[in-house]
Design a protein that fits this description.
heterotrimer, A mainly alpha (about 325), B mainly alpha (about 300), C alpha/beta (about 475), A: MetI-like fold, two-stranded antiparallel sheet, about 70% helix, B: mainly alpha
Chain lengths: ~325, ~300, ~475
């Protein structure tokens, strides 16, 4: 909308090319560290390491990937992990954001305290939760492994088997370790979403809710029918970026469960790591990475779409 | 933009709100508190079944404050202090974590954050102030780039590092890692920076032009000072992200002397399989600087978070 | 507007940058001068191959990858024995080769060093001159060309004739190439608390299950073992293969194909299933992080199948009668064994089958692309003296020395070694991977399957699961 006013003549050339020079270094960095590796990944996904060197194998890597039992299984784990993580985080964050948005004192204090989990590294968060439930020695192990509380043998979270699946091969219900993983990742993600939602809720004019409640709507009704529709774009963006973050992180799994017990906390990002850096099947890992990249791009496109209504107007 | 106030029973409601929030805060703090607790236990109290919350029980009583067996064993094992005549304190800390890994992390985090601020500031300014064809596409592309999983970027970067190491060019693992971190955290920072510049009225700059300032002059004298809070927010965000990053530091650096603190933690895991107090102490020592930094800069930090989160 | 041309220029530049990045990634290194780091470090030492090192007054660096870290002086670190070994040995070597070689060790995580080396060789990265290699990697290394064939050089060395043939075999690739110089062999044995099995460790699975039931009634566990799937399925090269082979089973058909669905393997898995289902082993066998060892240390589990080097990590110990062995060194186990509180035994086996046992050799390998091969040769010859070989074996190596002369060293005539050789003599030891060429993939697949069958889904059809697993692996052949 706004156009730059015609600048004075001597500066014209400089002004015209200035944005180019300003953006160029960024673009170079991104090319080296992000774009070139992405292209390399595409190339790699069609290659296989032979004793003689890299060999073109077409789509064989994808074929092998789909035939790996762990692929389908970890896709199932990923779905369970993401869905529960997102639901728990959204509900928790909404409650906290709603409470914080009320006219109370010490909001700054609460936000500060509640925000600490988000700045702790994933790998540390994993360890912190592992210290709680480590078999036999974890702080809660005495409680959880007590056969009287959890018959018949007590619950050792990191070794307990998953229940038999209800729906064929789909790994539901999740193993106790998966539930712990979900709790740990939710613990770390809630502050981030709280902050997002808080910003949106504070934009909702208080009068709207008040008048609804004076008209006899219950608190729940006014939240459900008035507030949530108003902050819907933020909710969608939160869900998408939560999914994006959770899907690609491995640090937490690394230190908390290492994919176990068995394969019960093996989500796609962890499988990508084990195929690539564990078994050195880089071609197959690249194929999996491309699949994940497509999912990521869909999520990013969703975020951009929902943001364009608010962010990109000027 | 008023905060919401519900009509009836405000003070009772507020009390309830505080009570719930305090409860949530306490629950949030449980994992952190227990880690601190574990870090001060001694080995016999760690490998005890069933575990006790406080190492304060005696044969007679379950809790006796005077009998508490608090210990700094975990920290001693991480820091490994050794008597030394050269140090003014009379001892030096020989643990790799404090001697090698944390200084490395500090270097990586500071250097990458500074570079990210400069680069993101420049391009964020351009994206905010100039309209050119392809601007929106480029902005979108910058965000879309982050969609490739980091794990496979590392394959290519690993190969790149190897080629560079063999080339006649001067090469240093540390500089390469910093470049990689810049590339990782730049896209989001560009968006954040653009948002901050969008919030600075252009009229101020245009007034400066009319007064005879060059565009660069206007940038450095008017816009930059106004953008400082935003830039420091980007600095903090990148600093924390680099501090907490694990995989790149682990896979791309070949020499152990150049590896960052998260690798050091991983190393501790391998050496202390059931010494939970050592692991807890290492966790605390690595996370502490970041938490303290956050507590001192929370306003700026949270601002960057909101900006960054909305954009992606 | 003029900016259109800006963008055009930018796109052109990007293309150039892309080309540069693709062809010579080096060219894109330019912007880093902005990074406020310390001065760029000087490139590493000039390759020694160009300059005869004997003429160089300064000793030339030669690098090794060991899983141990001589700089870690933590007396309670898990790798303390190996850390101390390096701390003692590095100065000895540097003195022996003063003015010639300078030994620089890069510590590597024991469960990651193999992949790190393969990745480094594939990418053409800097590799060490000496790699502390487990013979488990032999087939994989032969396949992907990670380490050099040492046969020609080694056969000309004086110590070659002194090498134990079975140790030598462990380092030999299917095509006959000698990929490592063995230093020690670590076959598996069962460590047994005498008071838990006073009449000797059971010979048959049935006998074991009977005694296990009796121990369970006393509130004790019959056995503890590494049952976790972590670390890429390394449970296989611990107790799992020992069990399978004691029932006459194994993982391969001898021609590089995985063969799991055999009656022998099914019987072995049923046996493991029963141990787990009846609670003869603690839940912590599945915990990973070597937590299963704790149950042997405090003697709440009566037996522990593990490698002959496993005792290096088992301390402090408490005997069933309460006797503590708590010097907190690997001496604890040897003391308990001397005192008769612990003995070594072969695993149980079915009729007509010798007790199975997985064996691994530890050796020294020279990676492809090593810069200082001459120093590596000097190093190997220096380590392969009876004295140094013994130091390594009583240090981090454990197991049986690879040099026959060393085997007759008084240090290897102790009760422990007598029992060890009896045990090994009564067992049929062979490497778990057999003819499989992708051991890393096989290990993870098979361990996940066994875990699923014995722990997670004890009602699943064993034959069907085993068939599925072997088919998945064989697809890649």
């Amino acid at each position: 909308m706004q156009h730059t006013k015609p600048p004075r003549k001597p500066l014209r050339f400089l002004r015209n090319s200035l944005p180019f020079w300003l953006i160029l270094p960024t673009v170079i960095f991104l090319f080296v560290v992000q774009v070139y590796p992405a292209l390399y990944t595409v190339w790699l996904s069609l290659q296989e390491r032979q004793p003689s060197g890299w060999t073109f194998v077409g789509l064989k890597n994808f074929d092998r990937l789909f035939n790996m039992s762990i692929f389908g299984e970890s896709a199932g784990h990923t779905i369970i992990f993401l869905v529960s993580h997102v639901i728990l985080t959204m509900v928790g964050a909404f409650i906290i954001a709603f409470l914080l948005s009320r006219k109370i004192r010490f909001t700054g204090f609460y936000i500060t305290v509640l925000f600490i989990p988000w700045i702790i590294a994933q790998i540390i968060v994993g360890l912190v939760f592992r210290l709680l439930v480590a078999p036999d020695y974890g702080l809660l192990a005495g409680l959880l492994q007590n056969p009287d509380l959890f018959p018949p043998n007590g619950l050792s979270v990191l070794t307990a088997s998953r229940p038999l699946p209800w729906f064929g091969e789909f790994p539901f219900p999740p193993s106790p370790a998966m539930i712990l993983l979900i709790i740990a990742s939710t613990w770390r993600a809630i502050p981030f979403v709280t902050l997002l939602l808080l910003g949106a809720i504070e934009m909702v004019p208080g009068e709207v809710l008040e008048s609804a409640m004076i008209d006899g709507a219950s608190l729940w009704q006014s939240i459900r029918y008035i507030m949530i529709p108003l902050i819907l774009p933020t909710i969608i963006v939160s869900i998408l970026s939560l999914t994006l973050n959770a899907m690609n992180g491995v640090g937490l799994i690394f230190s908390l469960t290492d994919g176990g017990p068995g394969t019960s906390t093996n989500i796609l990002s962890f499988t990508l790591y084990t195929i690539g850096w564990g078994q050195l099947q880089f071609g197959r890992a690249a194929a999996l990475a491309l699949i994940m990249a497509v999912i990521n791009w869909i999520l990013i496109a969703g975020i951009l779409r929902n943001n364009s209504s608010e962010g990109e107007t000027n | 933009m008023r905060k919401i106030s519900l009509p009836s029973g405000r003070s009772r409601n507020n009390l309830l709100t505080h009570a719930i929030l305090i409860l949530i805060c306490l629950i949030t703090m449980v994992p952190i508190a227990t880690t601190i607790l574990i870090s001060f236990k001694s080995q016999p109290d760690i490998t005890r079944y069933p575990p006790v919350l406080f190492p304060c029980d005696t044969p007679e009583k379950t809790f006796d404050l005077s009998a508490c067996r608090w210990s700094v064993e975990g920290y001693m094992r991480v820091l490994a202090p050794k008597p030394s005549d050269e140090s003014p304190l009379g001892f030096i800390l020989t643990g790799n974590l404090l001697r090698v890994y944390l200084p490395n992390t500090l270097l990586y985090a500071t250097a990458s954050a500074l570079c990210v601020v400069i680069l993101a500031g420049m391009s964020g300014y351009a994206f905010s102030r100039y309209r050119f064809r392809g601007r929106k596409a480029l902005l979108t592309a910058i965000l879309a780039i982050t969609g490739v999983p980091l794990l496979t970027n590392l394959l290519a970067l690993y190969q790149m590092a190897v080629n560079l190491r063999k080339s006649p060019l001067p090469f240093d693992d540390r500089i390469f890692l910093i470049v990689v971190y810049i590339g990782f955290f730049l896209p989001l920072s560009v968006w954040i920076a653009k948002g901050f510049f969008d919030a600075i009225p252009r009229e101020l700059e245009e007034a400066a032009f009319i007064d005879g300032c060059s565009p660069i002059g206007a940038l450095t004298r008017i816009t930059m000072p106004l953008a400082m809070p935003g830039m420091s927010a980007i600095f903090l965000l990148t600093f924390v992200n680099v501090w907490n990053e694990f995989l790149a530091g682990y896979l791309l650096v070949s020499k152990n002397e150049y590896k960052p603190a998260m690798f050091g933690l991983y190393d501790f895991l391998g050496q202390n399989l059931i010494n939970l107090q050592v692991i807890a102490a290492a966790c605390i020592l690595i996370a502490m600087p970041i938490v303290v930094l956050f507590l001192f800069t929370r306003r700026t930090f949270l601002k960057a978070m909101v900006e960054g989160a909305i954009k992606g | 507007m003029k900016f259109t041309s800006s963008l055009g220029r930018m796109i052109a530049l990007l293309l150039v940058a892309a080309l540069l990045a693709a062809c010579a990634p080096a060219a894109t290194e330019a912007p880093v001068v902005e990074a406020p780091t310390e001065a760029v470090a000087a490139p590493t030492e000039a390759p020694a191959t160009e300059v005869p090192p004997t003429e160089v007054p300064e000793p030339v660096d030669f690098t090794t990858w060991f899983e141990f870290d001589e700089k870690n002086e933590d007396p309670a670190a898990d790798g303390r024995v190996g850390n101390e070994y390096l701390r003692n040995t590095i100065p000895q070597f540097n003195e022996a080769f003063a003015g010639k070689w300078n030994w620089v060790n890069q510590p590597k995580a024991y469960d990651k060093m193999e992949t790190e080396l393969v990745a480094a060789v594939q990418a053409g990265a800097e590799v060490p001159d000496i790699y502390e290699m487990l013979s488990d990697s032999v087939n994989a290394f032969a396949q992907n060309g990670t380490v050099q064939d040492l046969r020609e050089w080694a056969e000309a060395q004086p110590w070659f004739a002194d090498l134990d043939p079975s140790a030598l075999k462990a380092c030999t690739a299917p095509d006959g190439a000698l990929l490592c110089i063995p230093m020690t062999q670590r076959p598996q044995a069962v460590y047994v608390w005498t008071d838990r099995y006073p009449n000797g460790f059971p010979k048959t699975p049935e006998d074991f299950l009977t005694q296990a039931e009796a121990l369970k009634a006393e509130g004790k566990y019959a056995i503890t073992f590494y049952g976790s799937t972590e670390k890429g399925g390394s449970g296989i090269n611990r107790a799992m293969f020992t069990t399978l082979s004691s029932f006459g089973g194994g993982l391969d058909d001898g021609n590089g194909n995985m063969l799991l669905n055999t009656p022998e393997n099914i019987a072995a898995i049923e046996f493991l299933r029963e141990i787990v289902a009846k609670g003869y082993a603690p839940e912590a066998v599945f915990a990973g992080k070597f937590q299963e060892e704790e149950y042997f240390k405090d003697s709440s589990a009566g037996a522990f199948p593990t490698g002959l080097n496993g005792y290096l990590y088992l301390f402090p110990l408490t005997a069933p009668n309460g006797t503590p062995y708590d010097t907190n060194t690997s001496q604890d186990f040897l003391n308990a064994l001397e005192a008769g509180d612990i003995y070594l035994s072969p695993f149980v086996s079915v009729e007509g089958v010798q007790p199975g046992c997985n064996t691994t050799a530890t050796g020294l390998a020279i990676p492809v692309g090593a810069k200082n091969v001459e120093a590596a040769h000097d190093f190997i010859s220096w380590v392969m003296t009876p004295e140094q070989n013994a130091n390594y074996v009583v240090g981090p190596g454990g197991g049986l020395p690879a040099l026959k002369t060393t085997q007759s060293d008084p240090r290897f005539q102790s009760t422990f070694y007598q029992q060890a050789s009896e045990t090994i003599g009564a067992s049929a030891c062979r490497p778990w991977y057999g003819s499989l060429l992708r051991p890393a993939e096989a290990k993870e697949l098979v361990m996940n399957t066994i875990y699923k069958l014995i722990k997670e889904d004890p009602t699943a059809d064993i034959a069907a699961e085993l068939t599925k697993t072997q088919e998945e692996y064989n697809q890649g052949n």
